[in-house]
Specification:
single chain; 738 residues; alpha+beta; Jelly Rolls; D-Maltodextrin-Binding Protein, domain 2; 3 domains; 5-stranded mixed beta sheet; 4-stranded antiparallel beta sheet; globular
Amino acid sequence: MKWIKWLIGLGIGCGAILLLLMPVKYYRIVSEGTDVYEAHYVLYGDRTQKQVVQIEHELVGIGAIVVDFRRSQNMKPVAVTVKTLDGEVMSRGEIILEQAADDSFVWTALSDGVDRRGEVVIEFKAPQAQVKNPMGLRFEKESGRVALGLVEKVTVAQRIVIWTKDHQERSFRVMLVVAGGSLVAFILSLASSQRNIFRLSVTTWLIIGLAIIALLVRLRTAVQVESVFGGDAFNYLIQSRAWLDGANPFAEEFRRKAPFLPLLLLPAWLGVIDPIVWGRIISIIAGVGAVVMLPRLLMFLQVPRQLAIGAGLLLAVNRNFWWESVHGLANTLYAALILGAVYAFMLQRKKYGRYLVGVLVGLTTLTRWEGGAVAAVLLPAVWIWHRLNIKTIIYTGWPALALVAIPFVFWPITGETGMRTMSDIAGDGGLKLAYSWGDFVGNLKGLELFLGRNWILVEAVGEQLWWLAGGLSIGLILGFLHRNQFRFYGRLVRFMPYILLLILIVVLIESSRESYKYLTMVLTALTGIGWGATLVIKPKFSIPVGLMLIGQVLVITMILPKSRYYLQLIPFLCAGVIFGLWIIGDWRRSYVSRVGTVLLVGVFSMLIYLDSARAMPGTISGFNEKSGNHTVIIQASKYLLDLPGNVAVVEESDLPARVYLTLERTRIFPIEWAENMEDLTDEEIYGWLKAFNIIYIIETTAQPVFDIIERHPDDFEFMEKFSSGYTEEEAMVYKVKK
């Protein structure tokens, strides 16, 4: 048998060498020309245009950008002749314009291949065209060179070398992904070792390293984010401060916000750390915790350690999860708690596991109100698993009920529970409610966009939901074959990881909008394969979790289908991809398949990291530009923190001031006044300042409303000016004298 395997290996090696020597055509763009009307040579009758080019391989075709210059709709062919420098004709071709659209290359095969190295002359002529309907041949305006493409006959090995020279930036990216991915794959493969290092297993050290990587990339991003944009993060902080100030933390203005994150934010008011920074730390810890939990969850499901850690790596470098986990919002915490609840659900055979399910679904509900859908699935699943045992129902139900009851406990004091009602949701203009099936189908576009851009930032996402459904169907079949260990199944899928790896590399080489779109659809289908196979292989676990995920999708899609609100799906998308790769490879019986699968995970992880890292600077810059007004108001509020007295700030810019200066000190200049300043008299403004005992004014260039300062400069003292590093917006602090 060994000699047979040796012969097979030798045959594969020889085949690879022969493949590199196979002749192929390479389409090389020499010049793309200038896309303006005047940058076209006019061809008709005997008029010709020549271009000298250097050829290094056998020339079998020519390409050029030819247009109907007068839009006469009477297009004529353009003759192409290849000559020596002495005028000897070597080959001919003919470009038929009907085959092309404007601004694109039209290619023609030559009658004979030009197998000669050195310079040749390429001549273009349109003998059938006339002055009234000439052909236009695009050229480069600066140099006068014709927009020209060459079709060369080369070997596969030569094509790789030529492509690398012609596309240096893209080839570097490909090599970086492949080399970096191979290194990642090697590190992941170490998880198969049974050795201990300093009394900890290699797997444990890899998970620690994974946590460090997730932490470092988030810290590096967090320090570049100047401020906060939007009201959610400020509202969580204001709700948190309400607990300390004796205000109502369940007031109507906080109804959208569940109380768990505000309670976690309470240490920020000890004065040791900035409240916004503390909110980010909570989110980062939650993100890193989810990255660590995911491999543990998959290993519990008997997914190989190498692949399980690969799933954690995918989650660590996922662009959406990475970005959202540096903001002081509840989304990352919510995702981590759901993942923790699912992990506890797997441990439910143990008493503490069942107890943790109750605790975590309760905390999930207190983090975002739609977490109630998690409890509505996982708790009954535990009870059914244990045959509706009364002790189990009480043991798991009481911690969940106790936690969810917290808002109701304060109801006699506050008069409100802070929970959203149907009438409240219906009256919220910021939501995108689906009142009909048509509305729901329209909202599904948001889910489709989230799925398509989950891995790579692409322009077009395609029919993601259909590919997901197709993947689920295939996964059900493969799961059945895998569970029953059909022998032909291993042979069927053994080389699938290498096929997917080849697709990935081809997409990187192509780097076109369409190729990336299809790559995202393949990844979505792979996710579906993983989920479908899990339903067959691990039904007791996957069915409740699947129902829980469906519940989350339905709730979010019916209310507000934005990507950040689908964030809790990302860990399960990572798990789906990894489970899919495990299923389509013959992991148990084929070493070749195991190597290919780990290599694919490494290369894919590297691609996702590079794409995320490339997109992050632009995301950070755009965020900082949008939050410029909040940035300068925060700086001004911190400046006034230790100065006693009420502070005036215009409405819609008041949230940062309320966080740092408290609602008691902050006086909000009405927005309806700010929008109609020409109708106000100075006496009215002075009256407002006096009525609210205003000592300081924060004036911003984004919302300049206190023109009275310019008209009466002696009544106000300029104190300080603050600016943002990303915008021209400024905030000025004035002290009221009069």
